[in-house]
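FAQ

Q: What does a record look like?
A: Structure on top, sequence underneath. For example:
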């Protein structure tokens, strides 16, 4: 009977580890309903950790767009990211150069710093934002 209990025990441990790996590779960013503008994510060791959802880490952006996480590793390592508004409506996640219509959660190409930037809005809104703020955004001190 001991070998059987070892097999069952090993299977449970494997399942727990597999779930942790799956959770840590899926990230959902929830943005306040009707939010438009820059989201700046910065590290703060005393910040609350992302919550665990069903097979994903859930990161909620505050209305200010200033998000603090204990570490930026969750956003910098290889992961699958999804975004939505707080009311559950869809918010497409796009990379620079992607073609899209309407409002989207856009990854911004910025210099490597101790911050990560995203923009929520249309492509035209992002272009207008960058016309006014490019210098300030690209000269952010880590």
């Amino acid at each position: 009977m001991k070998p059987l209990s070892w097999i069952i025990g090993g299977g449970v441990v494997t399942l727990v580890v597999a779930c942790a790996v799956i959770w840590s590779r899926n990230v959902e960013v929830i943005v306040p309903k009707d939010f438009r503008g820059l989201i700046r994510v910065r590290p703060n060791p005393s910040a609350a950790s992302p919550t665990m959802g069903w097979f994903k880490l859930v990161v909620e952006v505050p209305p200010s767009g200033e998000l603090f996480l204990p570490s930026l590793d969750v956003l910098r390592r290889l992961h699958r990211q999804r975004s939505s508004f707080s009311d559950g409506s869809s918010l497409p996640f796009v990379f620079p150069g992607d073609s899209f219509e309407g409002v989207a959660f856009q990854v911004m190409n910025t210099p490597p710093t101790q911050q990560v930037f995203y923009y929520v809005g249309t492509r035209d809104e992002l272009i207008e934002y960058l016309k006014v703020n490019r210098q300030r955004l690209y000269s952010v001190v880590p």
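Q: Is there anything notable about this one?
A: The chain has one domain: 2-138.
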